[in-house]
Amino acid sequence: MRSSHPKRAPDRDHPRRDRPAALRRPGSALEAAVDVVGHVEATGEAADRVLREYLRRLDISGKDAAETAHAAYAWFRWRGLLERFLPDVRGLSRAIELEERFVRHPDRFDGKVLVGKAVPPWVPDALPVTEDWVRTLQRPALLWLRARGGVKSVSGHLKGVAASRFTSLPEAVRFDGVADLYRTAAFRDGLFEIQDIASQAVGHVCAPVPGETWWDACAGEGGKMLHLADLMENRGLIWASDRSLHRLAMLKRRASRARIFNYRAVVWSDTSRAPTRTKFHGVLVDAPCSGVGTWARNPHARWTTTMEDVRELAEVQHRLVSTAAASVRPGGRLVYAVCTLTTAETTGVADRFEETVSGFQPLAFVDPFDPAAIPVPRRLWWPQHTEGNGMFVAAWRRVSH
Predict the structure, then answer these.
(1) Domains in the chain, CATH or no CATH each
(2) DSSP state, residue 3
(3) Are 318 and 273 in contact (CB under 8 A)?
(4) Exposure string over 158-177, b if 16+ CB within 10 A, otherwise e
(5) In whole angstroms, how far apart are CA 300 and each of 1, 76, 93, 293, 379?
(6) pLDDT tens digits for 124-152?
(7) Rounded CA gap, 67 and 55, in Å?
(8) Contacts by residues 88-93 (CB-CB < 8 Å, ≥ 24 positions apart)
């Protein structure tokens, strides 16, 4: 689940800032958040990356780090309703005030105003916008873990964990605690992965079995690949490819910590052909996308993504899924997933694939979020229903060469 947020100049008038790491140590978490927000607004860089670098280089952790992140994300979440404010202490204080009021009394906020100001004006042309969805974007996102042995396997090691209400996703665990998860013994021992619940659901749609051969075509840092490997009980083989050497290096480190060994990592830069002649039981194309489904978790992204990005990414997605389809063996499965909600990148790509690529038929699957529903070959999961990211999934079976 990787999104594309091109760097852009900011669209409001405020002083450009130096890189946050070059600044003096802030006197408070709010001042630290101002440094981070100012840099993001001036450069268009991803807020999570800027925040992570800032906290690391100034050695800010624990409660101060959490408060810094909260203030920074509050600004981007409420930015559209803060026309009279700059990203300074006063502006961020106002954003935090709005967020706290919304959490306590969401019904006091006019839904039409939120729809009109909390998302950019191009969005209604790209997807069906509802008040329920926009209200979900205005709440801090839940943090999900994939506890490899279920909630009981981590409850004795972490405070603030709770099982998901979705019984078909038994490893999905909500984390409400304050611990730095990356520094816990449970993380070092590989007892859990930090993975959104919607991403976990994609693994269950793939439903690989031990001994099969799979290809995770856009593996990134390996979140879904690790889940596939666990579902396969570390047996069989997974080809994990990505165009980024850095992401593949992270994947290898994560796999080592999780003691996952049934994979082969390979760079895939020429997307006009597969990186191997192997024919797979299953191929997952978790394609780069606009990331609209992650806007609750990454609120800064809604102000940098454009309709042009959506159109360009839909072309990339079609090329990736069409190329990957050739590597599916007869009877095998092809799964397309994107963490976005735009029509062009979801049903648009799926429709175009079915119109242009022969030998496949739609494959109905059980919806992990609604297992009692009639199985269908496509699902659009909205964040107000999943309690996590928004996600689109489509599946096909190869019936002929």
Answers:
(1) 20-109 (no CATH), 143-194 (3.30.70), 197-398 (3.40.50.150)
(2) B
(3) no
(4) beebebbebeebebbbbbee
(5) 17, 5, 17, 13, 26
(6) 999 999 999 999 999 999 999 999 999 99
(7) 11
(8) 88/34, 89/30, 89/31, 89/34, 92/30, 92/33, 92/34, 92/37, 93/30
